[in-house]
Amino acid sequence: MSGNRNTSRDETVPDASPPLGIDELLERVRAGYDRIGPPEAAAAAEAGALLVDIRYAALRDRDGLIPGALVVERNELEWRLDPRGSHRAAEAVGHDLQVVVVCNEGYASSLAVASLRQLGLHRATDLIGGFQAWRAAGLPVTPPTPPPPDTWDLNTRHPTPGI
User: Fold this and answer.
1) What DSSP string describes the chain?
2) Is the pLDDT of residue 163 over 50?
């Protein structure tokens, strides 16, 4: 018999950690940094922090934008904010940049912060409650742009679904 040992997928590896559920993962990630609320995020932006909106287009189109926030969808975030990356945004000027990640309700942004911190952006944090908390706090929001009139349903005067 050779020194190779085949293991089945069901075999337990003694040194492996058990899998985490998403709630536990969020708790662990968030324990590694201080999150901020809407007033603190607004003050940070005023002081030069970069607000980064990672919501997908449909949410931005529905709810509007935070004025001055850099829009980078979640699937591009690391490439656009890595100061050493070949596809970085002009705003990604260094690892000391304070970044406040904004998602819709404050969940995806926490996971995004963990990834940014692994890239060395040690001042990255996220907005508790996300865009919805920002808007509820009465902070500035640029309203969504209505669709062009040729996409409106003439019977209801509302945009037609799917456009």
Assistant:
1) --S-----TTSPPTTPPPPPPHHHHHHHHHTTS--B-HHHHHHHHHTT-EEEE---HHHHHHH-B-TTPEE--GGGHHHHH-TT-TT--TT---TT--EEEE-SSSSHHHHHHHHHHHTT-TT-EEBTTHHHHHHHTT---BPPPPPPGGGEETTTTEEPTT-
2) no
